[in-house]
User: Fold this.
Amino acid sequence: MKICCIGAGYVGGPTMAMIAKQCESTMVTVVDLNQDRIDEWNSDKLPVYEPGLLETVKSARGKNLFFTTDIDQTIKDSDIIFISVNTPTKDYGEGKGRSADLKYIESCARNIAKVGGGDKIVVEKSTVPVRTAQMVKEILSSADNGYSYQILSNPEFLAEGTAIADLENPDRVLIGGETTEAGQQAVEKLANIYAQWIDREKIITTNLWSSELSKLTANAFLAQRISSINAISALCEATGADVDEVANAIGTDSRIGPKFLKSSVGFGGSCFQKDILNLSYLCQHFGLPEVADYWNQVVQMNEHQKNRFFQRIMEAMFNTISGKNLAILGFAFKKDTNDARESPAISICKKLLEECAHLKIYDPEVSKLSILNSLGIKEGDKRVHICNNAEEATNETHAIVLLTEWDEFRELNYENIFSQMQKPAYFFDGRNHIDPTIIKEAGFRLFRIGKN
Ligand code: NAD
Ligand code: UGA
Assistant:
């Protein structure tokens, strides 16, 4: 059995590394247009930071796991082709700012049709709008090359920062296929791969459209929980209730459950916002404006939360931060990843820069280039200094703004840090991450989410 995965990103790389590790007799090749990315996958400095990933890659690389830019030959040689390319929000034309841009998916389908090489199973691993498989199917069947293609939907549910654990022991694997006999055989073939390390009961099979829609729905429900608790955090700040106490109290109800109730500066990452906007656009498209508005509100509440946090900084610092140095601890959208896509840190830093603050930014894994690109500024811009550690970032600043819950921020000596800062010194904890007594005893004026 030979597998090809198109797209060596945050999903394609880790997912295929896990399949290769678990299925030693399966040949897995990950292809990408981006030569630098492929070179990094072939080195010890992987393009994706993820605990346990390097070990997983190393266990199979060069044996049954390969990374290459030789896309056409790999497609030709493979029995199963995963499409794991990006599906960003469209930034032009019809549906701009809402619908998913499927140009990369379409170009993969056209390439598979062009290259030929035999009958193949084509698997949508990327997150796509419901009914995308129809488009892939039409492109492949129009090739008229004598080969037959089965299209499957197999969305990925891993979260960054815990990708390896999620892949090793997922809550479920979802496979959607056509209800025809050939369709069901293809579903079975893919299920057999996962069944090499995952219990059969955890492998759910559905029709194509249910599978595609379940992925968007799962992300929408997860993000909705965060927006719900963040909405309550605003009321907590106004009334003296404590958002963590409220979350704990409601989370013990087994119908609600305790997970994903951590109030924060807002959710980030490349998918939640994009997928909800896409879901909402689909509802609009299918003539369901009230449903579209309902889901849109989850994104709007997230914007409101980021803005509220910024306003709190401004108010606490006498509405003037012009010329002041502020330390930004954490830039990734969550801990244990080098990914800053749609990180709340981007909006907060941009707003602070509009107020003419000077920012000293430190993140343990996000590269300098990625931070500068995210903020749309060039190297050498005097307003932003990227630091090598938290001590450097906090030295001679008026305030600390904690935006990512990296473990190492809990181990800092805040008394020492306070002594190097301008007074009064402020601590804005966007994750309610640091023990408040440590911060207060060190002398800081502390501000947290959903707490007075
Ligand atoms: P990514 O941007 O990290 O990687 C996509 C890769 O595809 C890039 O390296 C790009 O060069 C490559 N690519 C694009 N078009 C190509 C083509 N025609 N041929 C070869 N390579 C091509 O994206 P990602 O974060 O891995 O996400 C991929 C998909 O998975 C998206 O649909 C996303 O919504 C979904 N998803 C992501 C996550 C996550 O945690 N990042 C989790 C679940 C699902
Ligand atoms: C999310 C989903 O959890 C995955 O199941 C899904 O596969 C993935 O999106 C995707 O489709 O891309 P991810 O975005 O990597 O995974 O990370 P999460 O752990 O979901 O966190 C997303 C954001 O929500 C982060 O900014 C995080 O800090 C924030 N968050 C999370 C909260 O503010 N509070 C919480 O209680 C949980």
